[in-house]
Design a protein that fits this description.
Blueprint (H helix, E strand, L loop, with lengths): L1 E7 L12 E5 L5 H11 L8 E4 L22 E8 L3 E3 H21 L1 H5 L7 H23 L7 E3 L2 H21 L6 H4 L7 H27 L22 H16 L4 H29 L16
Parallel strand pairs: 1-4
Antiparallel strand pairs: 1-2, 3-4, 5-6
Membrane topology: Multi-pass membrane protein
Keywords: Lipid biosynthesis, Lipid metabolism, Membrane, Oxidoreductase, Transmembrane, Transmembrane helix
Protein name: 3-oxo-5-alpha-steroid 4-dehydrogenase-domain-containing protein
Length: about 300
């Protein structure tokens, strides 16, 4: 057995005021076993709330790490535990994020008198955008339920409000309020590209194509991570030959096309800019992670998100 002394990082939560404590785990145990031992002493200290690290480094130790790899002394050691606060599953957060636009857009599209104080004779553009936006977020919900595998089971509960704001407000409330308003009604855009069936069909075809490419990228990433693991591999396949995150690239192209369909409506441009900036930050983080983890094995010519540029 290995005796591990657990010290609190700062002031411990009320339900763990007994810290520091010493727990015993098997010689062949893992960090997950240490967390389970801590919870055995403090039942409210759920495993998802615990962040364990060595005293000299605040970086979290992954659950699969073996105890014998943590300490120079094979019989004893010391770790620090931090309370991450109430947690919520990533899958639940994603489902909540994406349901916002699915509820908001139909209200503005089907009940314009309630939203604008008058009826709106929808233009072809408004109908196309409504169908494409709804299709996008239905796809995202289905991917969340059946495709995505998450490296972390949970996130802090209060993140759900921050994360949902991006979708509920920018791609939900503001986009719907802007795109379905009388300014873009059939009489208002008569004779413009927004009523041109060829233009709209080409744009819609591009959006669907980009969405399918995005789905393909997600399926490639899923195939690299067996269920119940945090394992990663080098992704290959369509799009991955040029960038580390083609899923973000194709999503950006889809929303760019939708913005073009609207004639560059202010809300569509705002959402496109904010979403692209956020995805670019995620892409760069993943790109650096891939290069660090796989070293010389990782293809040198790949960019993070935009081919040959970034």
């Amino acid at each position: 057995m290995v005796s591990v002394t657990i010290n609190p990082a700062g002031r411990p939560p009320a339900f763990a005021r007994g810290l520091p404590v010493t727990v015993d785990v098997p010689d062949n145990g893992t960090v997950a076993d240490i967390k389970a031992a801590i919870r055995a002493k403090f039942p409210q200290f759920h495993l998802s709330r615990q962040k364990l690290s060595v005293p000299s480094d605040k970086k979290a130790i992954v659950d699969e790490t073996r105890v014998q790899d943590l300490f120079a002394d094979a019989s004893a050691g010391e770790l620090v535990v931090k309370d991450l606060g109430p947690q919520i599953s990533w899958r639940t957060v994603f489902l909540i994020e994406y349901v916002g636009p699915l509820l908001i857009h139909p209200v503005f599209y089907y009940y314009p008198r309630l939203c604008y104080g008058q009826d709106v004779q929808h233009s072809s553009m408004q109908t196309y955008v409504f169908a494409l936006v709804m299709g996008h977020f239905v796809k995202r919900e289905l991917e969340t339920m059946f495709v995505h595998r998450f490296s972390h089971a949970t996130m802090p509960f209060f993140n759900v409000f921050k994360n949902s704001g991006h979708y509920h407000i920018l791609s939900g409330l503001l986009l719907a309020l802007d795109v379905y308003r009388p300014k873009y009604s059939a009489p208002a855009v008569a004779g413009t590209l927004m009523e041109n069936s060829t233009f709209l069909n080409v744009c819609a075809g591009l959006v669907v194509a980009f969405e399918l490419c995005n789905l393909n990228a997600h399926m490639v990433l899923r195939s690299l991570r067996p269920a119940g693991t945090t394992k990663r591999g080098i992704p290959y396949g369509f799009g991955f030959g040029l960038v580390s995150c083609p899923n973000y690239l194709f999503e950006t192209l889809a929303w760019t096309t939708i913005s073009v369909m609207t004639g560059g409506s202010p809300a569509s441009i705002l959402f496109l800019v904010v979403a692209t900036a956020q995805m670019a930050a995620w892409a760069m983080k993943k790109h650096k992670m891939y290069k660090k983890e796989f070293g010389k094995s990782y293809p040198r010519g790949r960019k993070a998100m935009f081919p040959f540029i970034f």
